[in-house]
Design goal:
- This protein has an eight-stranded parallel beta barrel with strand order 4-5-6-7-8-9-10-11, surrounded by six helices.
- It contains eleven helices and 15 strands.
- It has 345 residues and is α/β, with parallel strands linked by helices.
- It is globular and about 55 Å long.
- The protein binds guanosine-5'-monophosphate.
- Guanosine-5'-monophosphate binds next to β11.
């Protein structure tokens, strides 16, 4: 039996050490990044925060709101082709750089993806998403999509280790999505015992990806703006958010009223709720690996966006990073036993 003994860290295990800085205000910090993608050869500029491709988060309404801030939305895969056409009927060229088309890896997913991309040739990002990115079938699927769409930016995931990041990048992905089990409505770690603390996964996978000229997305596990800053500090090129963006007007999910209080339903994409909705129930061979929760209704996404971007900018000023790009090299993590003072929470 082999046990790896070096400690793996989650966001809750560290804080970022402050450093001398010449920046006067957080307004001086630029959160835009420019990336050059290794296979498609294309360039992208924007604020690298992405709404997750969950049907409660990656909605068209979310995309319209986040695009105003230069952010991205991975549109969930359950919209019909007619809905896509209607939504994109008056889209600007820039808007195509703010959305991703999501796909699973079945034959029908591939056919639907092809039809959407053919109907809307300006679409720029493809997000190929499976819970377990370690299968040969997945790697072969990524290669097939790359062959069909050489000039699209392809994102593939999820994995948590450097060697698999390399395999996916070499197999045709431009960007690899990292995270197994950290999600707010994910139960994979409980149901299977499999997972990897997210910050260590990010640090190790970023190193592997950057060595080849690729990028990574830290997907899942951010509970507050500070976690987003830690993910970027650890080397993530992009950060994907589910729960932090749920519960708003722009989010999907039913609005429920109970005893005068309003809630929105939020659920994992492999929860029984999602499977009932999209695949006619939980298939017999698999357990559901997602929760369904009710979260307090939070109104418009605008305030939450401000909170996330403001927090990230502020983190940059604490370490003297004038641009988000500099945050990683200016970050020193300290291991801690405590985060915030919880006496009044
Ligand atoms: P959050 O930001 O809410 O912590 O994490 C969002 C991420 O959780 C998503 O982008 C996706 O990778 C993951 N996720 C979403 N639904 C499920 C699910 O049902 N099961 C699992 N294991 N992960 C999920």
């Amino acid at each position: 039996m082999r046990v790896e003994n070096d400690i793996k860290l989650g966001f809750k295990d560290v804080l970022i050490r402050p450093k001398r800085s010449t920046l006067k205000s957080r307004s001086q910090v630029d959160l835009n990044r420019t990336f050059h993608f290794m296979h498609s050869g294309r360039e992208w500029r924007g604020v690298p925060v992405i709404a997750a491709n969950m049907d409660t988060v990656g909605t068209f309404e979310m995309a319209s709101a986040l695009a105003q801030h230069g952010m991205l939305t991975a549109i969930h895969k359950h919209y019909t082709e007619e809905q896509w056409s209607e939504y994109l009927s008056d889209a600007t060229d820039d808007f195509y750089h703010r959305i991703m088309v999501s796909s699973g890896t079945s034959d029908s997913d591939f056919e639907k993806l092809n039809r959407i991309l053919t109907a809307h040739p300006k679409l720029y990002f493809i997000c190929i998403d499976v819970a377990n990115g370690y299968s040969e079938h997945f790697v072969a699927f990524v290669a097939k999509v790359r062959k069909a769409w050489p000039d699209k930016v392809i994102i593939a995931g999820n994995v948590v280790t450097g060697e698999m990041v390399e395999e996916l990048l070499l197999g045709g992905a431009d960007v690899v999505k990292v995270g197994i089990g950290p999600g707010s409505v994910c139960t994979t770690r409980v149901k299977t015992g499999v997972g990897y603390p997210q910050l260590s996964a990010v640090i190790e996978c970023a190193d592997a990806a950057h060595g080849l000229g690729g990028q990574i997305i830290s997907d899942g596990g951010c509970t507050c703006a500070g976690d987003v800053a830690k993910a970027f500090g650890g080397g993530a090129d992009f950060v994907m958010l589910g729960g932090m963006l749920a519960g708003h007007d722009e989010s999907g999910g039913e609005l429920i009223e109970e005893d005068g209080e309003q809630f929105k339903l939020f659920y994992g994409m492999s929860s029984a709720t999602a499977m009932d909705k999209h695949s006619g129930g939980v298939a017999e061979y698999r357990a559901s690996e997602g929760k369904t929760v009710k979260i307090p209704y939070r109104g418009s996404i605008a305030i939450t966006i401000q909170d996330i971007l403001g927090g990230t900018r502020s983190a940059c000023t604490y370490v003297g990073a004038a641009q988000l790009k500099e945050l990683t090299k200016r970050t020193t993590f300290i291991r801690v036993q405590e985060q915030e003072n919880r006496i009044y929470t």
